[in-house]
Amino acid sequence: METDINAYKQYWDLALKYGSEYGLKILLAIAIFLIGKRIARAITNLAVKTMRKQEVDIELIGFIDSLLYWGLFAVIVVAALGQLGIQTASFVAILGAAGLAIGLALQGSLSNFAAGVLIILLRPFRVGEFVDIAGTAGTVHTIKIFTTELRTGDNKAVIIPNARVLDSNITNFSSTGSRRVDMVIGIGYDDDIDKARDVIKGLIAADSRILSEPAPIVAVTELADSSVNFIVRPWVCSADYWGVHNDMIENIKKSFDKEGISIPYPQRQVHTTVVENN
Fold first, then answer.
1. Whose CA is closest to 79, among 119, 34, 46, 127?
2. Which residues, 6 or more positions from 153, have their beta carbon under 8 angstroms from its beta carbon?
3. What would the pLDDT profile of 119-147 be if each residue is shown by its tens digit?
4. Does domain 2-105 sit in CATH 1.10.287.1260?
5. 85 pLDDT higher than 80
6. Within its chain, how far is the Cα of 27 from the centroid?
7. How far apart are the C-alpha atoms of 222 and 7, rounded to whole Å?
8. Which of 124, 105, 204 is nearest to 162 (CA)?
């Protein structure tokens, strides 16, 4: 009987010893895990809320939501295991090696993804704007994580990888809200320059789509081989660019015809020499 009591006492002492030694660690590990999960979710929700206020693309919000939460969750698990005395260095090394292998395998896709994130955050262009990207001009139809889709003037869908978008020059014709219409109009050397200038200015003044500021420019720019050339540069809203450009060309031709102002054809003089044989 006394032997059993001594054995129970030994077991009790061992339980108290290891319980006091590891019990606190277990409780701390559980606390780190539970509290860490709440903190991770709070940080993720704050990031999502901020991105929604900035009108970040919904696809990017969903991706960053999952990526941020699970990244923080992995950190919490490693911290909890470390509190229990488990060596986590090898575990972290394995995760790092796996991440490196995946990164190398998806190098092209990851570069497109990183470029997509920058495009969505920096906003060099928006959906509906007319741009020239990597030699392709068109209206931005969609901006996705990996690609950007343009619609050309003849309604072709052109899909450009986002890495190529950032690697090329981007010309945004819509971002400033206004554009300058550049035209060169030639008249004959025998025509009245002042009269031609007044006709062009009258057409500009009559078009309500042309902006008063900046002021339009009508000036003689060149004495060319066959014509006296005017530069005609009115400013318009971006959406009116092609309409004003085409209408001005047509109206100038009709008005010049009516006023007797010529628009000369390119001319070339050919001199011939006749050699007589005696």
1. 34
2. 137, 138
3. 877 788 888 888 998 888 888 888 877 88
4. yes
5. no
6. 49
7. 113
8. 124
